[in-house]
Amino acid sequence: MTPDELADRLENAADQLGDAIARRVVHTAELGRGMIRANASGRPGPNVITGRYRSSWEITATRIPYGAQCTIGTNAPQGRRLEFGFFDMTDSIGRHFYQPPFPHVGPAVPRMTATLRDQMAGAVQEVLS
Prior knowledge:
Layout lengths: L2 H37 L12 H4 L2 E7 L2 E7 L5 H6 L1 E5 L5 E4 L9 H20 L1
Antiparallel strand pairs: 1-2, 3-4
Helix pairs in contact: 1-4
């Protein structure tokens, strides 16, 4: 391979890299949302009562130069309380509350990180092959 051919190949790969990364970031976010939903399907995470909380988890994907970013989240009011719990809380009419945490997002983060790392390596292989 000549230096000019190599330069052309690398330029072509650079043009394709953003799309490959974007596809793989969204794929990783979908898998992450699935992991969170699975963790929110009973102990040690929260129990399922109606399934509305579990289905409230959504992905927001945004294209950025040479890739994408995704946010996985919920607007459900109980999300933070279920993940982190709260201790020794008294409300405005004097009721005392204690809720232990039922982590379901935190345990998924290391697996999402490993998946994203593998997906980025795959994106580079995809555009260079």
